[in-house]
Amino acid sequence: MAAIVATSLVARADEIDISFTTSGTFGATGTGTYKDLIFAGTTVTGTTVGGALSLSDLGSFDLSRPGGILAVYATTFSEDFLFTIPAGTKHNPTVFNSLVTGVVTANGNDTVKITFGVSNKPVSFSNDQGTGSFLLSVNDITISLPKGSDTTTALGTGSIADATFTPVPEPAGIVLLITVVGAMLGLWRKCSGRYDGPSGPQTSLPD
To answer: Model confidence at 86, in pLDDT bands (50, 70, 90)?
Structure first.
């Protein structure tokens, strides 16, 4: 029984309120602009369901092709995730970063690709409410100019999976655990025929 109580106090996993902002820089320029490709970050807020959260907008990439000729793209792109957990102002949130980097290449005269290769990156955190972790995935991006157009926009996407959060045991729960352990110890002594008398532990003799 004591083991069951202890498990319920320290191993309970909750869903996570997540908030983060994204920003990004291209390796060749150190800014969010590289030739005719521009990245704009965004803010995302959500709550995991079953430990998962779909990320449909991690920021936008605006691509243009002035004069109908696509520039040559060969650099890296680093996207920074600034997490705030739990989201909102309740409790004392933890703020931390996670960085992912991809390779930028051009394909023909109408397509730019960013290959991240980031699948299930482990992310962990802790605050005064407990500890948690999740897996972050960022999808590769293909930015293709529509036929007859020299401008387009594409959104970065990804997902969070296997999110867990283990709360710190509350004082009332700790008191309950101590009480249960004490009761179990007393029951064991009674059933084993032992008691602590004035002279220390003694064993009762049968009549």
So the answer is: confident
